[in-house]
Amino acid sequence: MPLSRFPPAPRFPADSLASRRSHMSSDKRSITVLGLGPMGRAMAAALLDRGYTVTVWNRTASRADELVARGAVQAADVAEALAANDVVVLSLTDYAAMYEVLEPAGAALAGRTLVNLSSDTPEQARAAARWAAERGAVHLTGGVTVPPSGIGQPDSVTFYSGPRAAFDTCRPHLEVITGRTDHRGEDPGLAALFYQLGMVMFWTSMLSFWQAVALARANGLKAADILPHAVDTARSLPGFFAFYAERIDAGDHSGDVDRLAMGTASVEHVLHTHADSGVDTRLPAAVVDLFRHGMAAGHAADSFSSLVELLTGTEA
What we know:
Blueprint (H helix, E strand, L loop, with lengths): L13 H12 L4 E5 L3 H12 L3 E5 L7 H5 L3 E2 L3 H7 L2 E4 L4 H8 L10 E4 L5 H13 L3 E7 L12 E5 L2 H14 L2 E4 L5 H30 L4 H27 L10 H18 L4 H15 L10 H5 L5
Parallel strand pairs: 1-2, 1-4, 2-3, 4-5, 5-6, 7-8
Antiparallel strand pairs: 6-7
Helix pairs in contact: 6-8, 8-9, 10-11
């Protein structure tokens, strides 16, 4: 649900803010959110909806106006935001932004649990966990699998990794942000890895839809005209995932069901159709290049699942 627009709330006197921070630090339904982009605002709003006392901070202070009008406490700076609560949710562009925001307030990090829902790589998450520990804080990596509209919904999911004890302590708060929380293990990089696994499938799948729309347009069709076919195609994929996952894990790339040579001919037809239609061919050409690489590696008679071995670098 979009936030309503409210005028900026008045600032509280320093002694009033100190009093409220003291109360919040001991309140189990109290939390800090740093970063108020669309995702951070949605998280703060969901927590307010559930009766939480929420302290917020953002570099562009006006982004907090609507939340403050609903009862959030706007911290004057990052140090004040960190001092307000033991649990601090980070919703920033990436981990570089986290360092930029937190390093000047490093002295206020001790004793805090940083629930980092910013996107970045598994290695960056591991480095951030070490950085936080050096400053007396605990780092929980999070990977949110839904857009802002999914925040606060019971079926939405976030992956987490890092210290299990910290996750268990924070879990009631985290289940407000997304109804389902999936702790993948102590390794801080695992949640980021699972997030990136989803992203590689999401971005390439959506780009394949854009490519199909472009091809349809070049042939006089609209996106709405091909939508039912696109949806049916997408719905068929889980069955393929399940079938091939079992065989890949078993190291079975036998060509009893499909052959790479047949798949190569198919993707070349896709490429030629785009070229004939005057549509950009960079994406289908990249697919053809990968299939031809598999052919050159001697997998013509194998399943096209053998491309996994090329992608993982187990073959030249």
